[in-house]
């Protein structure tokens, strides 16, 4: 439509000249909002879910073992690996749980594997985690203490052994040393942190790191 002001161009109408078309395209592009890049967070929640599932599975698998401990070796007099100047008259062993007298015993042997314990071991009435056995020393040499227990708490059995040495000419030492055999004084125990604890701490560390990275990426996005 033409009037006294000349032709009237409709709003957003496409110009016919090439130069005008170029200006029109540029202006239209400047008027459009910028598209923001889409952050790819989908993999992190999946990793967190997998880590949590592995942690729960590990705890579930280990829970029965943690709940059912044994009346295992804690300490003794003489201590495991101790060097004494004279043979003791009594050997005392302290355990991790209350001991059932039925099915539990301690036997002490000399270096020739001759029994030097003179009676069956007794559970202390004042401390059900402690057993004592009377012995008759047979001079210098290495003595072997073998024990087996039944837990009065859950009925689980355990077995183990340790040694001490009598040397009348040596300086007495109560410092324990490594017990012979692969089981150690407690039968089933091992030194250091348990493997399950190390693995669990590692899984929790992975979960914490992945969670921190996920939060940081969400904030940055």
How does this structure look, described?
The chain is of the alpha+beta class and about 220 residues long. Among the domains are: about 45-65 and about 195-220; about 75-165, Sandwich (Immunoglobulin-like), CATH 2.60.40. The protein is about 30% helix and about 20% strand. The protein is built from three helices and ten strands; from the N terminus they run ββααββββββββα. It has helices at about 20-30, 45-65, 195-220; strands spanning about 1-5, 5, 75, 85, 90-95, 105-110, 120-125, 130-135, 140-150, 155-165. The strands form three sheets. It has a four-stranded antiparallel sheet with strand order 3-5-8-7, with no helix packed on it. A four-stranded mixed sheet has the order 4-10-9-6, with no helix packed on it. Strand 1 (about 1-5) and strand 2 form a beta hairpin. Helix 2 runs antiparallel to helix 3 (about 195-220). It is elongated, with a radius of gyration of 39 Å.
Which short descriptors sum up this protein?
221 residues, alpha+beta, Immunoglobulin-like, 4-stranded antiparallel beta sheet, 4-stranded mixed beta sheet, 29% helix
Secondary structure elements and pairings:
Elements: E1 2-3, E2 6-7, H1 18-31, H2 43-67, E3 73-77, E4 83-84, E5 90-95, E6 105-109, E7 122-123, E8 130-134, E9 141-150, E10 157-166, H3 195-220
Parallel strand pairs: 4-10
Antiparallel strand pairs: 1-2, 3-5, 5-8, 6-9, 7-8, 9-10
Q: What is the H-and-E element order?
A: EEHHEEEEEEEEH
Question: What profile does the largest beta sheet have?
Answer: 4 strands, antiparallel
Low-confidence residue ranges: 177-184, 188-196
Helix count equals 3
CATH topology of the domain at 73-166: Immunoglobulin-like
- SS strand fraction: 15-25%
| CATH architecture grouping of the domain at 73-166 | Sandwich
Q: Radius of gyration, rounded?
A: 39 Å
Number of strands: 10
